[in-house]
Design a protein that fits this description.
By secondary structure, the protein is α/β, with parallel strands linked by helices. The protein is about 50% helix and about 10% strand. Among the domains are: about 5-165 and about 245-260, 3-Layer(aba) Sandwich (Rossmann fold), CATH 3.40.50.1010; about 295-440, Ribonuclease H-like superfamily/Ribonuclease H (Nucleotidyltransferase, domain 5, 2-Layer Sandwich); about 470-575, Up-down Bundle (Taq DNA Polymerase, Chain T, domain 4), CATH 1.20.1060.10; about 635-770, 5' to 3' exonuclease, C-terminal subdomain (DNA polymerase, domain 1, Orthogonal Bundle). Helix 5 packs antiparallel against helix 13. The termini are far apart.
């Protein structure tokens, strides 16, 4: 049974609290949702823990209330409701209506007065009331039938008569008397000079009420308080009038109308889906009328009757024996896998549709006997035609993940998509999603990018994953021992400088050493205290030797625990190689990432990072080598092309040192007079511009003043004016259209570009500038990978692409094929797209990834 008492929510107050507590929460299309999310979270907590039968949410309607007429300064210090919040109030009311919860509001009255009135009438009718609020004004309503519940601690705090007396030392009925004396800053009710909460409470405790206090004020011994009361009698009486809640608002009260109705789960599903509230979607109850999906069991011999030679087949599952299929709108599974299903999967003419087909292709190939020893029984998935995961990624690259259930929640109307997923439901979703996603790709001019780039790339990446990379475990073992020795000495040095032993990995103990024991200045704070992050330690390194050693300790332990000690354990016992996963849907710009292990983050500029690269070696026979093909300054070349800047185009066209050229332009010197330090500064500016460089960022990076940094940036734009025009053009486009595009039409939506918060808006502007450049670089190397892969297959070369790291491709090749591979890779990478400037590739070869010589 639910709680029969009436719950009254101070809704407007909770909307404000949620809005400010949750920060900048919004949907992928820019709709602020922090207030809605926080309010529903609070509401669900009450519904779950209290299980009320009667509940109403009470709202303010306007500020023109009777209190404003009595006291013009009432709440005058409060700014108008923020635009980001006012736009969420209708959504909160929609949610309440869908939950079956009554909404109470009345022009000219605050939610507090509506609550007071309803609570008074309900208790007079014998119905107990709990007011859900954290406002102390509400405590005046507490009596035998009325309690106030503040839900903000873990279990919340329930105020009954005893709890109010314990908290304030006076009965609930005289709470307005205390407010009359101490004032209320949140409502702009002035206090009596010299009287705070403690002295107000003591006075009311002594005299029993405000009326008694004022009538007997001559008995007060403290002259200052007596004089303050005498001088502010009108203010005190007005304060109490403002503090007392109105229990006689002319508003209808019918307990039956405040009973919680049956929730409209379909409407809640629609609302939560639109607001991207996955947590709340998953919390909706499953329905009983789930449509049964008929699955037919057929034999392998009948497959050719179902699937035309140039037809389509939808598949779901990673193991052949457990797969489920859909063809001609018929869902089926096999009694037993046989030669027909294997030939169908390997037939490139038959179009394969699925979700994360790369994963399926890798899983099928891994169980193939041919991977261990060639038997001719290989299961290689061919004809990968439409992947719903990749399609959804192109349509919205800002999603945190692309699981099938998440995509179904976005694009299918059925509320049952939030439930547990089974094979039958999964393949049904894929079948429904394919035409929807395909149409949207077409409408947004993304279908060509999808079909010609991303789908072919999935096959390339699967081959790279299956090939893997060879690791020299002995090199890593020796490196681990060396680091262990360095760490022992480093820890001893850290303890010596700190003057004590402590847990270096404990932020709390580290704070005590740095800021309490050594008295170093605090420059940044986190929720738990002074920050000890990398930036803070780097800034403190100029004041004390300890922070520099801590940075070195962190770097060594991170590399040891992330790569050096981990990589040997990732070697596949069947292949003797490490098989990383290349993630095609993980970044908003279109760049690839890798995981288990993350090859993208192995540092090159540190001695340990370099040593890790020495452990990545050429596999195959002794005559095999690694070949590295690295795009040279590709993002700056793309900037020159996109901005149409004559000076940048000329510099690249003449194959000049772009950083030296920039330095000569900024400093107004001949190239021969440019020092290495000047070139380094210009290099930082060149690359920084691509990432939305600010004077603050440049001053921090170079250790120069803000003014000097701004002068560098101004000088840069003076010499490269078209770059500045490009930046302004991309920002304007993002502001108007809500997205930016790469050279091949890849989109990135930037909803925060018009955000009222300057910091958020500026970050979005940097994204608008950088994405077309970084995303185009991504498109460039992806297209090159496809062309190289196809050429290697066509020429039946043994050389294989094994890694893609940022702007670099790494191949494993027999020495006899080096000439062919290098010529092929250079040709395809440098001419994959024709730009206004030449594309240049630096090529190296070697037995391992570190010790390489230029070709």
């Amino acid at each position: 049974m639910g709680d029969k008492r009436l719950y009254l929510i101070d809704a407007t107050a909770f909307c404000y609290r949620a809005f400010y507590a949750l920060g900048n929460l919004s949907t992928s299309f820019g709709q602020p949702t922090n207030a809605v999310y926080g309010f529903i979270n609070m509401l669900n907590k009450i519904l779950k823990e209290r299980k009320p039968q009667y509940l109403a949410a009470c709202f303010d309607v306007s500020r023109d209330t009777f209190r404003k007429k009595k006291f013009a300064e009432y709440k005058i210090q409060r700014p108008p409701m923020p635009e980001g919040l006012s736009g969420q109030i209708p959504l909160i009311k929609q949610a309440l209506s869908a939950y079956g919860i009554a909404i109470l509001e009345k022009e000219g009255f605050e939610a507090d007065d509506i609550i007071a009135t309803i609570a008074h009438r309900a208790s007079a009718r014998g119905l107990s009331v709990t007011v859900v609020s954290s406002d102390k004004d509400m405590l005046q309503l507490v009596d035998k039938e009325v309690t106030v519940f503040s839900p903000y601690q873990e279990a919340g705090t329930l105020y009954d008569e005893k709890k109010v007396l314990e908290r304030f030392g006076v009965p609930a009925s005289v709470i307005p008397d205390i407010i009359a004396l101490m004032g209320d800053a949140s409502d702009n009710i002035p206090n009596v000079p010299g009287i705070g909460e403690v002295s107000a409470r003591e006075l009311i405790q002594k005299f029993g009420s405000l009326d008694a206090l004022l009538a007997n004020r001559g008995q007060i011994k403290q002259n200052k308080i007596k004089e303050a009361l005498e001088s502010n009698l009108d203010t005190i009486r007005l304060n109490r009038e403002l503090a007392v809640l109105d229990k006689n608002v002319n508003i209808d009260f019918d307990p039956d109308r405040l009973k919680i109705a049956q929730p409209d789960y379909r409407e809640l599903f629609r609302l939560f889906k639109r607001l991207e509230f996955k947590k709340f979607l998953k919390g909706l109850p499953a329905q009983d009328n789930i449509e049964e999906i008929e699955v037919t069991h057929i034999s392998d011999s009948r497959l050719r009757d179902l699937i035309a030679e140039d037809g389509e087949i939808i598949l779901w599952g990673q193991a052949l024996e457990e797969m489920i299929f859909c063809a001609g709108k018929k869902i089926f599974c096999l009694d037993k896998a046989g030669p027909n299903i294997k030939s169908i999967l390997a037939d490139a003419k038959i179009k394969k549709i699925g979700h994360d087909l790369k994963k399926t292709r890798v899983a099928l190939a891994k169980v193939s006997p041919a991977r261990a020893s060639p038997t001719g029984d290989d299961i290689i998935l061919q004809g990968m035609y439409f992947d719903t995961m990749i399609a959804a990624y192109l349509l919205n690259p800002s999603r945190p993940k692309y699981e099938l259930a998440d995509i179904a929640l976005d694009y299918l109307d059925s509320p049952y998509a939030a439930g547990e997923i089974g094979k039958e439901k999964a393949i049904s979703w894929v079948a429904q999603l394919k035409p929807i996603l395909e149409n949207q790709l077409r409408e947004k001019n993304l279908l060509e990018l999808f079909s010609s780039l991303e789908m072919p790339l999935a096959e390339v990446l699967s081959e790279m994953e299956l090939c893997g990379i060879k690791i020299n475990s002995a090199v890593l073992a020796e490196l681990s021992r060396d680091i262990e020795t360095r760490l022992v000495k480093l820890i001893a040095d850290i303890y010596a400088l700190a003057g004590c032993q402590f847990n270096i990995n404990s932020p709390k103990q580290l704070r005590e050493v740095l800021f309490e024991k050594l008295k170093l200045p605090v420059s940044k704070k986190s929720k738990t205290g002074p920050s000890t992050n990398e930036e803070v330690l780097r800034n403190l390194s100029g004041r004390h030797k300890l922070p520099a050693l801590l940075l070195e300790y962190r770097q060594l332990t991170k590399l040891k625990n992330t790569y050096i000690d981990i990589l040997p354990g990732l070697i596949d016992k069947h292949t003797g190689r490490i098989h990383t996963s290349f993630n095609q849907t993980a970044t908003e710009t279109g760049r690839l990432s890798s995981s288990n292990p993350n090859l993208q983050n192995i540092p090159i500029k540190t001695d340990i990072g370099s040593a890790i690269r020495r452990a990545i070696i050429a596999g195959g026979k002794n005559d095999y080598l690694l070949v590295s093909c690295d795009y040279s300054q590709v993002e700056l070349r793309l900037l020159a092309h996109l901005a149409h800047d004559e000076n940048l185009i000329a510099a690249f066209g003449e194959d000049k040192d772009i950083h030296k050229i920039t330095a000569s332009l900024i400093y107004g010197l001949e190239e021969k007079d440019i020092t290495q330090q000047m070139r380094e500064t210009a290099k930082r500016v060149n690359f920084g511009i691509v990432y939305g460089l600010t004077s603050f960022g440049l001053s921090r990076d170079l250790g120069i003043s803000l003014e000097e940094a701004q002068n560098f940036i101004d000088a840069y734009f003076l010499r490269y004016p078209r770059v500045k025009e490009y930046i302004e053009r991309e920002i304007r486009k993002a502001e108007q259209e809500g997205f930016v595009v790469t050279l091949l039409g890849r989109r990135r939506y930037i909803p925060e570009i018009n955000n009222k918060n300057q910091g958020i808006r500026q970050f979005a502007q940097r994204q608008a500038v950088n994405t077309p450049i970084q995303g185009s670089a991504s498109d460039l190397i992806k297209l090159a990978m496809i062309h190289i892969h196809q050429e290697l297959k066509q020429k039946k070369l043994k050389s294989r692409m094994v890694m893609q790291i940022h702007d670099e491709l790494v191949f494993e090749a027999p020495e006899g094929e080096l000439g062919d591979l290098i010529k092929l890779a250079k040709e395809k990478m440098e001419h994959v797209l024709e730009l206004a400037v030449p594309i240049k590739v630096d090529i190296k070869k070697g037995k391992n990834w570190l010790d390489m010589e230029p070709v």
